[in-house]
């Protein structure tokens, strides 16, 4: 026998309200609130703001896409090129070769666990200089021409090479071909981070 006021499934009996029936458990769990006009307008404004922010973000990302020249360092074969803009002179004769030039100290460091090989120009690394002009990196100065190149410079893991370099004003970086094999068959262009010379 079912207790009074309950159906045989253990649910309260449906109560007649107007022309439809509803149970108390249905009324509390399945009634959907209809938002007021003010709430709908407020939600529309929030959605519009989010849409505008999303469009602005997409436009900013598009502007900074492939058309922007990279300015961070690009180590190759774990070789990192750093430039100390206010570098010290490591050898004698650091008088500027021209007017309005700044002395820097360049360090080429093998941060990896295997030896790396640097393209050489004589007994020094064959560094190239680039300047950022209208968002594009362009080579600066004459092309490197080496009369005597015995082969690449081997740079053991943890070792570094330091050289002085003079720069004119502008946004600059250094580039160097670096390989993981002594025959330079897997060389790639290593770049320093960009830096500003005033």
Cα separation of the termini:
96 Å
Question: What would you call the shape?
Answer: elongated
Query: How many separate domains make up the residues?
Result: 2
Strand content: 25-35%
Low-confidence segments, given as residue ranges, are 13-29, 57-67
The counted number of beta strands is 14
Instruction: Assign the CATH architecture of the largest domain.
Output: Sandwich
What is the CATH topology descriptor of the largest domain?
Immunoglobulin-like
The major pleated sheet works out as: 7 strands, antiparallel
- Helices and strands, in N-to-C order? EEHHEEEEEEEEEEEE
Number of helices, where a helix is a run of at least 4 consecutive DSSP H or I residues? 2
CATH hierarchy, class of the largest domain? Mainly Beta
How is the quaternary structure best described? single chain
The gyration radius over C-alpha positions equals 35 Å
Characterise this structure.
Strands 5, 8, 9, 10, 12, 13 and 14 form a seven-stranded antiparallel β-sheet that branches. A three-stranded antiparallel β-sheet has the order 3-4-11, with no helix packed on it. A two-stranded antiparallel ribbon has the order 1-2. About 14% of the residues have low confidence. 17% of the residues lie in helices and 33% in strands. The chain is elongated. It has two domains: 49 residues, no CATH class; 119 residues, Immunoglobulin-like (Sandwich), CATH 2.60.40.
